[in-house]
Amino acid sequence: MKTAVGSVKNASLALYFADFKEITKARLAVSVVFSSIAGYFLGAVEISFSSVLLLAFGGYCMVGASNAYNQIIEKDLDALMSRTKNRPIPAGRMSVNTAMAIAVLMTILGIVALYFLNPKTAMFGAISIFLYTSVYTPLKTKTPLAVFVGAFPGAIPFMLGWVAATDNFGIEPGTLFMIQFFWQFPHFWALGWMLDDDYKKGGFKMLPTGKKDKGTALQIIMYTIWMMIISIIPVFGFTGRLQLSIVAAIIVFLMGTVMLFFAFRLYENRDNASARKLMLASVSYITLMQVVYVMDKFI
Fold first, then answer.
1. What is the pTM of this model?
2. Reduced 3-state DSSP string for 47-83
């Protein structure tokens, strides 16, 4: 009997944990934390393990809170789309009050954790929550410009790590911000292309032309080129302490050409399979680019 009760409790805890991961979008949050830590390593003169832990915890809380607020606001629209109808709130596994409690608690914990690093880091973390929740989320059903607005909070994590390490905002974190800012467009438009039919069920306007056409594909190409250019700017010595060797710049540029290749393939084929390949290439690019930047500093 005790074993049966214990099994039920364990199953319940597993379900609660699964819903917590879903409401906070754990995989996305972990990727954001990775970007923040990469930025920290680039900015730090000496690595502080406690600071890395605070940044990781605070960063996860910031992203988790933003995603929880987002799912509260969009609960009725999520119920209309195949990819989101099984989320905790529309599926009825979590109440709005519970989700709000999680979001508020994570907001407080995240801001406090980042404030222990320095006030500027906490400020940028709070700005990212505000922009994502109060500006980007409502705009998604109004205009494709929502992606432009959403690119601002989406670009903060890489920059946030540098600010956490240095307590300073200047050309270096600004450059990191711009790299991730321009990366957002080919990444999210590729995703939006794949999910366009489902997005339309919820009334979301994610593609720049509103259609899966050459106009959208051409904009993806242009933003990919800008991303490639900005990603190698540190090799020219214009970006203060943020520097990149010629070898690392070549590697980063070549990785960008892979993304550009898939962007051209999307322009030629204009199908979901090409969009998926571009989306996967973009995920690989942002991760590997950050790894190259960090390795180039320490090797």
1. 0.91
2. CCHHHHHHHHHHHHHHHHHHHHHHHHHCHHHHCCCCC
